[in-house]
Specification:
Helix content: 25-40%
Distance between the termini: 13 Å
Shape: globular
Number of domains: 2
Order of helices and strands: EHEHEEEHEHHEHEEHEHEEH
Radius of gyration: 18 Å
Structural class: alpha/beta
Strand content: 15-25%
Largest sheet: 8 strands, mixed
Number of strands: 12
Bound molecules: (2R)-3-hydroxy-2-(alpha-D-mannopyranosyloxy)propanoic acid, magnesium ion
Strand order of the largest sheet: 5-4-3-2-1-10-11-12
CATH class of the largest domain: Alpha Beta
Number of helices: 9
CATH architecture of the largest domain: 3-Layer(aba) Sandwich
Length: about 270
Amino acid sequence: LIVMTDLDGTLLDHDTYSFAPAVPVMERLRATGIPLILNTSKTAAELASLRTTLQNTDPYVVENGSAIYLPAEQKGQTAHKTGDQVHILGARRSEILSFIQKIRVEEKFQFTGFADMEVSEVIAYTGLSESDSELAMTREFSEPLIWQDSAHQLRKFEALIANHGLRLLKGGRFVHVIGACDKGKCLHWLRERFTDSYGAQPAFVALGDSQNDVAMLNAADIAVIVRSSHHEPPDLEKQSSVIITEETGPQGWANALTQILDETLI
Ligand code: 2M8
Ligand code: MG
Ligand code: MG
Protein backbone atom coordinates (compact mmCIF):
# COMPACT_ATOMS: atom_id res chain seq x y z
CA LEU A 1 0.00 0.00 0.00
CA ILE A 2 1.15 3.52 -0.80
CA VAL A 3 -0.60 6.71 0.31
CA MET A 4 -0.48 9.75 -1.97
CA THR A 5 -1.96 12.97 -0.69
CA ASP A 6 -2.73 16.55 -1.57
CA LEU A 7 -1.80 19.11 1.12
CA ASP A 8 -3.96 22.26 1.14
CA GLY A 9 -7.53 21.48 2.21
CA THR A 10 -6.63 17.79 2.55
CA LEU A 11 -3.77 16.94 4.93
CA LEU A 12 -3.58 20.63 5.91
CA ASP A 13 -6.59 22.64 7.04
CA HIS A 14 -7.69 25.08 4.29
CA ASP A 15 -7.58 28.11 6.60
CA THR A 16 -5.07 27.37 9.38
CA TYR A 17 -2.76 24.92 7.53
CA SER A 18 -2.82 22.75 10.68
CA PHE A 19 -2.26 19.00 10.34
CA ALA A 20 -2.59 18.15 14.04
CA PRO A 21 -5.45 15.61 13.69
CA ALA A 22 -3.39 13.64 11.13
CA VAL A 23 -0.27 13.15 13.28
CA PRO A 24 -1.20 9.72 14.80
CA VAL A 25 -2.01 8.31 11.35
CA MET A 26 1.24 9.67 9.88
CA GLU A 27 3.08 7.92 12.74
CA ARG A 28 1.18 4.72 11.98
CA LEU A 29 2.20 4.92 8.30
CA ARG A 30 5.86 5.41 9.26
CA ALA A 31 5.72 2.50 11.73
CA THR A 32 4.24 0.16 9.09
CA GLY A 33 6.63 1.33 6.35
CA ILE A 34 3.86 2.67 4.11
CA PRO A 35 5.19 5.56 1.98
CA LEU A 36 3.36 8.87 2.27
CA ILE A 37 3.84 10.72 -1.01
CA LEU A 38 2.96 14.42 -0.94
CA ASN A 39 1.45 15.54 -4.27
CA THR A 40 0.68 19.23 -4.13
CA SER A 41 0.37 22.65 -5.80
CA LYS A 42 3.12 23.80 -3.48
CA THR A 43 6.71 24.46 -4.55
CA ALA A 44 9.88 22.46 -3.84
CA ALA A 45 10.93 25.35 -1.59
CA GLU A 46 7.72 25.02 0.46
CA LEU A 47 8.16 21.25 0.65
CA ALA A 48 11.74 21.47 1.86
CA SER A 49 10.41 23.19 4.96
CA LEU A 50 7.14 21.25 5.28
CA ARG A 51 8.66 17.78 4.86
CA THR A 52 10.94 18.51 7.81
CA THR A 53 7.96 19.57 9.92
CA LEU A 54 5.97 16.50 8.85
CA GLN A 55 9.05 14.23 9.28
CA ASN A 56 8.49 12.99 5.74
CA THR A 57 11.33 11.39 3.75
CA ASP A 58 9.36 9.85 0.86
CA PRO A 59 9.27 10.94 -2.81
CA TYR A 60 7.13 14.01 -3.47
CA VAL A 61 5.46 15.88 -6.32
CA VAL A 62 5.36 19.68 -6.63
CA GLU A 63 3.43 22.38 -8.54
CA ASN A 64 0.44 20.25 -9.60
CA GLY A 65 2.33 17.34 -11.13
CA SER A 66 5.10 19.43 -12.70
CA ALA A 67 8.04 17.66 -11.07
CA ILE A 68 8.66 14.45 -9.10
CA TYR A 69 11.46 14.46 -6.53
CA LEU A 70 13.15 11.26 -5.42
CA PRO A 71 15.10 11.84 -2.21
CA ALA A 72 18.71 10.72 -2.38
CA GLU A 73 18.07 7.84 0.10
CA GLN A 74 15.66 6.31 -2.44
CA LYS A 75 18.56 5.75 -4.80
CA GLY A 76 20.66 4.02 -2.15
CA GLN A 77 22.96 7.01 -1.90
CA THR A 78 22.65 7.70 1.81
CA ALA A 79 26.41 7.48 2.16
CA HIS A 80 27.16 10.25 -0.34
CA LYS A 81 24.20 12.62 -0.44
CA THR A 82 24.04 13.99 -3.97
CA GLY A 83 20.70 15.71 -3.40
CA ASP A 84 17.24 14.79 -4.59
CA GLN A 85 16.80 13.45 -8.09
CA VAL A 86 14.15 15.35 -10.06
CA HIS A 87 11.98 14.19 -12.94
CA ILE A 88 10.29 17.11 -14.74
CA LEU A 89 6.94 16.64 -16.49
CA GLY A 90 5.80 20.26 -16.61
CA ALA A 91 6.92 23.50 -18.23
CA ARG A 92 9.33 26.18 -17.05
CA ARG A 93 7.63 29.05 -15.26
CA SER A 94 9.58 31.59 -17.33
CA GLU A 95 7.93 30.18 -20.48
CA ILE A 96 4.50 30.17 -18.82
CA LEU A 97 4.93 33.79 -17.71
CA SER A 98 6.09 35.14 -21.03
CA PHE A 99 3.14 33.51 -22.83
CA ILE A 100 0.38 34.54 -20.41
CA GLN A 101 1.76 38.08 -20.13
CA LYS A 102 1.75 38.35 -23.93
CA ILE A 103 -1.88 37.21 -24.31
CA ARG A 104 -2.94 39.38 -21.37
CA VAL A 105 -1.89 42.43 -23.37
CA GLU A 106 -3.33 41.14 -26.66
CA GLU A 107 -6.71 39.99 -25.28
CA LYS A 108 -7.01 42.43 -22.33
CA PHE A 109 -7.46 39.56 -19.86
CA GLN A 110 -7.91 40.67 -16.25
CA PHE A 111 -5.94 38.55 -13.78
CA THR A 112 -3.34 38.86 -11.06
CA GLY A 113 -0.64 36.22 -10.83
CA PHE A 114 2.00 35.58 -8.17
CA ALA A 115 4.51 37.31 -10.47
CA ASP A 116 2.40 40.50 -10.21
CA MET A 117 2.08 40.33 -6.41
CA GLU A 118 4.09 41.70 -3.51
CA VAL A 119 4.71 39.32 -0.60
CA SER A 120 2.05 41.23 1.36
CA GLU A 121 -0.58 40.34 -1.28
CA VAL A 122 0.31 36.63 -1.20
CA ILE A 123 0.02 36.79 2.61
CA ALA A 124 -3.42 38.43 2.27
CA TYR A 125 -4.71 35.89 -0.28
CA THR A 126 -3.33 32.74 1.37
CA GLY A 127 -3.04 33.48 5.08
CA LEU A 128 0.49 32.06 4.99
CA SER A 129 3.25 33.61 7.12
CA GLU A 130 5.70 35.98 5.44
CA SER A 131 8.44 33.36 5.16
CA ASP A 132 6.02 30.68 3.88
CA SER A 133 4.62 33.17 1.34
CA GLU A 134 8.14 33.77 0.07
CA LEU A 135 8.61 30.01 -0.33
CA ALA A 136 5.26 29.81 -2.22
CA MET A 137 6.49 32.59 -4.53
CA THR A 138 9.67 30.62 -5.31
CA ARG A 139 7.99 28.88 -8.24
CA GLU A 140 9.70 26.96 -11.05
CA PHE A 141 6.92 25.31 -13.08
CA SER A 142 3.57 27.05 -12.58
CA GLU A 143 1.79 30.34 -12.04
CA PRO A 144 -1.21 30.67 -9.65
CA LEU A 145 -3.68 33.36 -10.71
CA ILE A 146 -6.59 35.25 -9.22
CA TRP A 147 -8.96 35.43 -12.20
CA GLN A 148 -10.61 38.86 -12.32
CA ASP A 149 -12.37 38.52 -15.68
CA SER A 150 -15.55 36.81 -16.93
CA ALA A 151 -16.07 33.04 -17.23
CA HIS A 152 -16.25 33.54 -21.00
CA GLN A 153 -12.81 35.17 -21.02
CA LEU A 154 -11.48 32.33 -18.84
CA ARG A 155 -12.57 29.77 -21.47
CA LYS A 156 -10.86 31.85 -24.15
CA PHE A 157 -7.70 32.07 -22.02
CA GLU A 158 -7.80 28.30 -21.48
CA ALA A 159 -8.11 27.63 -25.22
CA LEU A 160 -5.22 29.96 -26.04
CA ILE A 161 -2.88 28.43 -23.49
CA ALA A 162 -3.92 24.92 -24.62
CA ASN A 163 -2.72 25.78 -28.14
CA HIS A 164 0.58 26.61 -26.49
CA GLY A 165 0.83 23.25 -24.62
CA LEU A 166 -0.28 24.70 -21.27
CA ARG A 167 -3.27 23.95 -19.08
CA LEU A 168 -5.36 25.36 -16.29
CA LEU A 169 -6.24 23.64 -13.01
CA LYS A 170 -8.36 24.94 -10.17
CA GLY A 171 -6.93 24.72 -6.65
CA GLY A 172 -8.53 25.83 -3.40
CA ARG A 173 -7.89 29.54 -3.94
CA PHE A 174 -6.18 30.03 -7.30
CA VAL A 175 -6.31 28.81 -10.88
CA HIS A 176 -2.91 27.39 -11.78
CA VAL A 177 -1.28 27.60 -15.20
CA ILE A 178 0.96 24.55 -15.70
CA GLY A 179 2.54 22.50 -18.50
CA ALA A 180 1.08 19.33 -20.02
CA CYS A 181 1.09 17.52 -16.68
CA ASP A 182 -1.16 16.70 -13.74
CA LYS A 183 -1.01 14.90 -10.41
CA GLY A 184 -2.36 11.67 -11.99
CA LYS A 185 0.54 11.29 -14.45
CA CYS A 186 2.88 11.44 -11.46
CA LEU A 187 0.94 8.71 -9.67
CA HIS A 188 1.35 6.47 -12.75
CA TRP A 189 5.08 7.28 -12.99
CA LEU A 190 5.68 6.51 -9.31
CA ARG A 191 3.53 3.36 -9.46
CA GLU A 192 5.86 1.95 -12.15
CA ARG A 193 8.91 2.88 -10.13
CA PHE A 194 7.59 1.29 -6.94
CA THR A 195 6.47 -1.80 -8.90
CA ASP A 196 10.08 -2.23 -10.06
CA SER A 197 11.54 -1.90 -6.57
CA TYR A 198 8.81 -3.94 -4.78
CA GLY A 199 8.60 -6.64 -7.47
CA ALA A 200 4.79 -6.29 -7.38
CA GLN A 201 2.36 -3.48 -8.10
CA PRO A 202 1.41 -1.63 -4.91
CA ALA A 203 -2.14 -0.38 -4.33
CA PHE A 204 -2.42 3.41 -4.15
CA VAL A 205 -4.77 5.29 -1.85
CA ALA A 206 -5.04 8.92 -2.98
CA LEU A 207 -6.58 11.77 -0.98
CA GLY A 208 -7.58 15.21 -2.31
CA ASP A 209 -10.22 17.91 -2.07
CA SER A 210 -10.26 19.91 -5.33
CA GLN A 211 -10.50 19.79 -9.11
CA ASN A 212 -6.70 19.70 -9.40
CA ASP A 213 -6.77 16.35 -7.55
CA VAL A 214 -9.21 14.61 -9.93
CA ALA A 215 -6.57 13.02 -12.22
CA MET A 216 -4.71 11.67 -9.17
CA LEU A 217 -7.93 10.39 -7.55
CA ASN A 218 -8.97 8.68 -10.81
CA ALA A 219 -5.54 7.02 -11.14
CA ALA A 220 -5.63 5.56 -7.61
CA ASP A 221 -7.00 2.19 -6.48
CA ILE A 222 -8.91 3.85 -3.66
CA ALA A 223 -9.89 7.53 -3.88
CA VAL A 224 -10.67 9.63 -0.83
CA ILE A 225 -12.32 12.99 -1.38
CA VAL A 226 -11.72 15.08 1.71
CA ARG A 227 -14.72 17.30 2.24
CA SER A 228 -14.24 21.05 2.02
CA SER A 229 -16.22 23.74 3.82
CA HIS A 230 -15.42 26.08 0.90
CA HIS A 231 -16.51 24.14 -2.19
CA GLU A 232 -18.43 21.08 -3.40
CA PRO A 233 -16.57 17.74 -3.73
CA PRO A 234 -15.20 17.24 -7.29
CA ASP A 235 -16.86 14.70 -9.62
CA LEU A 236 -14.96 11.44 -10.19
CA GLU A 237 -16.42 9.90 -13.32
CA LYS A 238 -13.60 7.36 -13.85
CA GLN A 239 -13.37 5.98 -10.34
CA SER A 240 -15.47 3.18 -8.83
CA SER A 241 -13.85 3.14 -5.38
CA VAL A 242 -14.56 6.49 -3.75
CA ILE A 243 -14.88 7.54 -0.13
CA ILE A 244 -16.15 11.05 0.63
CA THR A 245 -15.28 12.07 4.18
CA GLU A 246 -17.77 13.51 6.65
CA GLU A 247 -15.20 15.74 8.38
CA THR A 248 -13.21 18.40 6.52
CA GLY A 249 -9.42 18.72 6.13
CA PRO A 250 -6.97 16.75 8.30
CA GLN A 251 -9.72 15.24 10.49
CA GLY A 252 -11.44 13.77 7.43
CA TRP A 253 -8.01 12.65 6.13
CA ALA A 254 -7.25 10.87 9.42
CA ASN A 255 -10.66 9.19 9.71
CA ALA A 256 -10.64 7.85 6.14
CA LEU A 257 -7.08 6.51 6.36
CA THR A 258 -7.70 4.92 9.76
CA GLN A 259 -10.66 3.05 8.28
CA ILE A 260 -8.64 1.95 5.22
CA LEU A 261 -5.64 0.85 7.31
CA ASP A 262 -7.89 -1.07 9.75
CA GLU A 263 -9.49 -2.91 6.84
CA THR A 264 -6.28 -3.53 4.89
CA LEU A 265 -3.62 -4.39 7.46
CA ILE A 266 -3.63 -7.68 9.25
C1 2M8 B 1 -1.61 27.73 -3.78
O1 2M8 B 1 -2.16 26.46 -3.95
C2 2M8 B 1 -3.47 26.16 -3.40
C3 2M8 B 1 -3.71 24.67 -3.60
O2 2M8 B 1 -5.00 24.28 -3.57
C4 2M8 B 1 -4.59 26.97 -4.04
O3 2M8 B 1 -4.68 27.08 -5.28
O4 2M8 B 1 -5.41 27.46 -3.28
C5 2M8 B 1 -0.11 27.69 -4.15
O5 2M8 B 1 0.34 28.97 -4.38
C6 2M8 B 1 0.74 27.08 -3.06
O6 2M8 B 1 2.10 27.22 -3.40
C7 2M8 B 1 0.44 27.75 -1.74
O7 2M8 B 1 1.14 27.12 -0.69
C8 2M8 B 1 -1.05 27.68 -1.46
C9 2M8 B 1 -1.41 28.38 -0.16
O8 2M8 B 1 -2.79 28.27 0.10
O9 2M8 B 1 -1.79 28.29 -2.51
MG1 MG C 1 -6.20 20.92 -2.04
MG1 MG D 1 -3.14 21.25 -3.70
